[in-house]
Write a structure and sequence with these properties.
Order of helices and strands: HHHEEHHHHHHHH
Strand order of the largest sheet: 1-2
Mean pLDDT: 80
Strand content: under 5%
Radius of gyration: 62 Å
Distance between the termini: 185 Å
Number of helices: 11
Length: 501
């Protein structure tokens, strides 16, 4: 059995080993213990987040309680007076049973699944780049489609504007042809009037419209070249982005719809602040959405806005020019028609005056002939042998009467006076007949001039109404002006066709 020694004996050092030997062993043991604690603490610290390392001066349970306090659910008061527990905001795993939400744990050292994790991360990066490339390609493709559509609209509007410009040029040719036709009128009909003023005014207005439309055509041509260049650049960038996406399991339009950005679907629409969906990614020189793409899309938006404004201006100008040209043509035709009516009235009055002067000439000629007959009757026959006995001045009654002094008869003197008076009236009547004939010739010539002027003005109005038809092209009107037909040249006025004196 073991023998218990008394205390006095126990306190005595009965150890055999030397104290230095024991101290050396204790020192080695203490050093090993310190190394063990330090390495264990460092190992735990490597696997724990930085904020979970406890303070060595605080108790372990207090450190743990303070560390997990932000994980617990929070109690919120509702309007009805009831309470509801909610997990704290932020990322983490929600533990509904224990009512805690610890944050995501981030290891400081590589884990055994590092290879698979890095492979998954690489796949996610590649997929994100592919999604970005698809989305950028979809935006570029949609922008290209809209630019192409705007290009077609601008081309159609340019065709309409070019057609209207051709009509304006045709109007200028018709104005020149109208002036040329009116120059064929006789000289008395070429007195400047309101019709000539209207033709001059029409020429100035048509020239102004022509200059305005030519400026718009030049502006639209510059915009058309810019749109074509932007479309080609967008197509190049789109093809460049599609090179990074070999397999596409959905169309580009579906990509835009999934992005939830209507402003991306229609870049001509200004994005609203309430738009829900993905935000426009910032330009990345090494990403799918490069600064060049951003600049080109902004240029496409600017060109779309500018082209819409240009289309509206061209459409308004085209309609205004069409209406203004129609009004000008109607006013000129109305002025010419009024001139035709006035010429017709003057011609009718001249025709009536010609009839009156013709009747007067006939009556005067007949009266003159009767005076010649009367003068011949008063003079008597040419031969004395044809005189009757009662007409002879040496008849028996006259000789008996003349035997007395102062009984001279005035018969011969009165016959001579009557003959002279008739002769004077005949000369005066012949003079009046000459004046009447001269007035008739002048009036007839003026009536003929009015007739020619009426026909020329009527031909001008008929020509303008026929050539204003949309089926008459500019080339046909140009041939009409350039044709040189000798029959249509103004005739050279001879001495016989001059104005009668």
């Amino acid at each position: 059995m073991p023998v218990l020694l008394p205390p006095a004996e126990r306190s005595q050092d009965t150890r055999v080993g030397a104290p230095a030997w024991r101290e050396a062993a204790h020192a080695v043991s203490r050093q090993a213990h310190l190394v063990t604690d330090r390495c264990g603490q460092e190992a735990v610290t490597m696997w724990q987040p930085a904020d979970s390392v406890r303070d060595p001066h605080v108790a372990r349970h207090l450190c743990r309680a303070a560390y997990i306090q932000p994980w617990r659910f929070r109690v919120e008061m509702l309007k009805g007076g009831t309470t509801m527990e909610k997990p704290p905001p932020g990322e983490g795993v929600t533990l509904w049973k224990s009512k805690m939400k610890p944050p995501a744990w981030h290891a400081r050292l590589p884990l055994p699944l590092l290879r698979d994790a890095r492979a998954l991360q690489t796949a996610e990066v590649v997929q994100a780049h592919a999604r970005g490339a698809r989305l950028t390609a979809a935006r570029l493709c949609r922008a290209q489609q809209q630019i192409n559509g705007q290009l077609r609209l601008l081309q159609r509007q340019r065709e309409a504007a070019d057609c209207r410009l051709s009509e304006v040029r045709k109007g200028l040719l018709l104005n020149a042809q109208s002036v040329k036709l009116r120059s064929y009128r006789p000289e008395p009909e070429q007195v400047p009037d309101k019709a000539d003023s209207m033709l001059t005014w029409e020429k100035e207005e048509l020239r102004s419209m022509k200059r305005k439309m030519e400026k718009e055509m030049e502006k639209s041509e510059t915009l058309l070249k810019s749109l074509a260049s932007c479309r080609d650049t967008l197509s190049f960038y789109c093809k460049e982005r599609l090179q990074a996406v070999e397999l596409m399991n959905q169309p580009l339009d579906k990509v835009l719809e999934q992005a939830g950005r209507h402003s991306w679907v229609d870049i001509s629409r200004a994005p609203t602040p309430r738009t829900q969906g993905q935000k426009t990614p910032p330009p990345d020189p090494v990403g799918a959405y490069t600064p060049e793409c951003s600049v080109e899309l902004n240029e496409a938006k600017r060109l779309l806005m500018e082209s819409k404004e240009t289309l509206a201006e061209m459409s308004k100008t085209e309609s205004d020019v069409r209406e203004q040209q129609q009004q000008i043509n109607d006013r000129v035709c109305a002025t010419l028609a009024q001139k035709i009516q006035e010429t017709l009235e003057l011609k009718e009055k001249m025709n009536m005056t010609l009839g009156l002067i013709r009747g007067t000439i006939h009556r005067c000629t007949k009266f003159n002939q009767e005076m010649y007959v009367t003068c011949g009757l008063i003079k008597g026959p040419l031969s004395e042998c044809h005189l009757e006995t009662r007409e002879k001045l040496n008849r028996a009654l006259v000789r008996v009467y003349q035997r007395h002094v102062g009984t001279q008869l005035p018969e011969a003197a009165r016959l001579t006076q009557g003959t002279d008076q008739l002769q004077r009236h005949i000369l005066h009547m012949e003079k009046n007949l000459k004046e009447l004939l001269a007035a008739r010739d002048k009036l007839s010539w003026s009536h003929n001039c009015k007739k020619i002027g009426h026909e020329v003005d009527h031909s001008v109005v008929r020509l303008r109404r026929r050539q204003q038809h949309p089926h008459v092209c500019y080339e046909e009107a140009l041939r009409l002006v350039e044709d040189c037909d000798p029959r249509t040249q103004p005739p050279e006025r001879s001495k016989a066709s001059a104005v009668p004196k």
